[in-house]
């Protein structure tokens, strides 16, 4: 493995810096000592600079933000050590945010950027390969589905982001090994790209034939927020399991952020909403939009420190409600365990720094610095998420990650009850970690939900739910 | 009289075997019958079958009194009244009496299966439908459950009512003991191994070398790969699955357990950071094995591959195989031999993974950077020589920044930044989320905003570190508390700091210089920077000590 010295990127830059410095007035030569800065000091510098810059951006002082960004640019690099890379992507996001202040400029710069669909798909696959989080989530999901579907004859699985065939292949194998024979399996996969679903269909059908399982794959090409639950073709009598891996948070995007206002409506809204769900099935979406959201004007920022529950986004509520209409036996939700949905930009940046620092560390520990795949993951996956968190607002900001303790009341309100994840699932997951090359990862059990951690920092949460009927 | 006796005997068999029963029929032996028949309750009725454990509904249910059950020497020779514990022994003895042929043979009537009930009324086996099929079994059951525990193990003072139990225990007590680091003691190897694989305490304490008694001899390891009990009762796959699943963990633990007692080489000195050490030791055990382990592996691999091949196991092995094989397939060339599943499945034929034998030292070619990376994330101390510049991970840096902001006083930094930063729209909000000492921050924030330009230069002047070196060292010495810090509350801007006069050194001087540039301060500030540059020059020399 090639191990580049952290300082190598820096040693090349002083010359560059000198030339820069000579251009800008009044700056003299303040940077010779930058050369001797160790990676640690540089990292600390970067952190401080990033937050100073974030404050400037949040406050709207572009000039100062600009200067900060320039300082950071001398230290950051997408090919350097972890902190340098993080800084590079964060500054790009901050710059993007600033640029949005000039919409014309922003559009002009972004109009010629092409995103290759194939690259995006590839990047997701790379993330799946090199970080164990998705694999762990799949293992846990599969085990939970296996346990929930014991004794069922017809199993219908709905995958809200169906892109990795291995997940369902393992489940098919597990189901075929059941003592009383495999059930009839239907998998409905939702994805935005047709090619991915075709590939899935091919692999899964092949596997089902090998295992001699009655199998049917329904592809649905759709964005999650536009998903029509009726199109999922769930028949009565089927045992439904829903798998949502890092998807649900995008439904939290709302049109406009409202300022938080205290309202008496808020304090009793949990109960009212519950009753509403029962009594008013048809017009729930409209009801919510009109009455609850407007009446209580609660901030969709569920990261508020108010202990009172805040109104959920209408998209989320209607989606969850529709899902509950299918009476799923099981719904396994994997989400990022970090609060990137704060109303406050600096809050989001702070949280994002911690979260992505851990993720970048994960990559650093498994892939060499020169690896192109690693750069791709960092740039096209993490970089994009960071940009979305920092630079976008409103409906555009789809990466609204939230911690599990915010998800739990939301899901419970929608009529789901928590299903504890079994010890067996934990064993499976730990076995996976031990048998593969993943070092430094941990799985913790918190109130029977699993936290996938990197070195004690929880990064992803996996929890299982089932539809709980009210009387 | 005899006939009636015969009838009685035939219709209501005694607890003794038919042969001796026959003998008793013929030789009216009041002593024996007084012993046994007087107290026996004879139930020749057939009971309906209800629960598993009673396979034969036609069996005769026999209820014996406790005295009869516990009686030793129940088989008595009618000729000389010598008592025997076993019927066979009695028969052998009777041969010596030269009995005529008729008396010697057993009756040829078909032997009915007999089941026995426990005489203790509160016992669940008192019910004929839950009778036990074996006389010895019911005797032992009665002793164990309802009897007095007369036998005691000296080593562990465990008490037993049945002597055979006690003897069996004495054979193993203290001979092989497995102690996990969390303190749990195991006498069974399989339960020990399963426990070790998932013991959290073990993961945390992997730094210490293990004093547990582990069989390192090859013979033991080869033999004892019994199937461990399935980890969770809820696993749907039936026993055929457990060999493969169970086998994975013992082998892993064999390797790790054999690994850990060894003293680590210099590359991996104690105390390495906790979980990283364990995982890296597991990683290295995957790559480096002892010949004994290798042979054990070979036996394991053959069995596991065969079972996993045939069963299409639905749980973890498949998941592990499918997921990890894909992982090992991608670009991690130096870690190819370390892929556990690939070793398992590929090495079915060969008996030695192609690695260094007996070298449990963690040689750096095998010691992939992954443990390095995971280790460095927790402490900046230089454990890993192979890496030229042990860089801190980003998470550690963030924690350190929080520490730094909390502990050191950075007035020049603060002033430099305070001048530049306009009061944000909601200072309270910012500081409350970002400062660790929220009570004092608003004042600092507002005070810093009010500071004059002139203080910048003075701040820079102060930034010349006479105390720079010490504070820089101090800066670097805070890592000990890093690990426990929650990164959520970070005092990045150092807002929680007191407005002391001492400057922590070159780092802050850099930031002050930024503050200076932000204000377009005069070049007079920059000469102040150069001495700070000297500070920075010192830092490389200090680096080895810090790192």
Describe the structure.
Chain A: Pfam families: GRAS. Chain A: A motif (VHIID) lies at residues 155-159. Chain A: InterPro entries: TF_GRAS. The complex is a heterodimer of chains A (471) and B (547). Chain A has 471 residues and is α/β, with parallel strands linked by helices. Helix content of chain A is 52%, strand content 13%. Among the domains of chain A are: 34-107, no CATH class; 120-253 and 311-337 and 403-467, Rossmann fold (3-Layer(aba) Sandwich), CATH 3.40.50.150. Chain A has helices at 6-23, 39-59, 62-75, 82-99, 103-111, 117-130, 133-148, 165-176, 194-211, 264-279, 284-296, 314-325, 345-366, 372-391, 404-413, 423-435, and strands at residues 154-159, 184-191, 215-221, 239-245, 330-336, 416-419, 441-446, 449-454, 457-467. Chain A is globular. By secondary structure, chain B is mainly alpha-helical. Chain B is built from 25 helices and nine strands. Chain B has helices at 2-11, 18-26, 30-36, 66-70, 87-95, 101-104, 135-146, 163-172, 189-197, 200-204, 218-223, 242-259, 274-287, 291-311, 316-329, 340-346, 369-376, 394-407, 411-420, 427-434, 441-449, 454-462, 468-476, 506-518, 525-546, and strands at residues 41-46, 60-63, 75-76, 83-84, 114-117, 151-152, 159-160, 178-179, 185-186. In chain B, strand 6 (151-152) and strand 7 (159-160) form a beta hairpin. In chain B, helix 19 runs antiparallel to helix 22 (454-462) and helix 22 runs antiparallel to helix 24 (506-518). Mean pLDDT of chain B is 52; it is low at 1-51, 207-321, 324-389, 409-507 and 518-547. The chains are: A alpha/beta (471), B mainly alpha (547). Chains A and B meet through helix 2, helix 3, helix 4, helix 7 and helix 8 of A and helix 12, helix 13, helix 15, helix 17 and helix 18 of B.
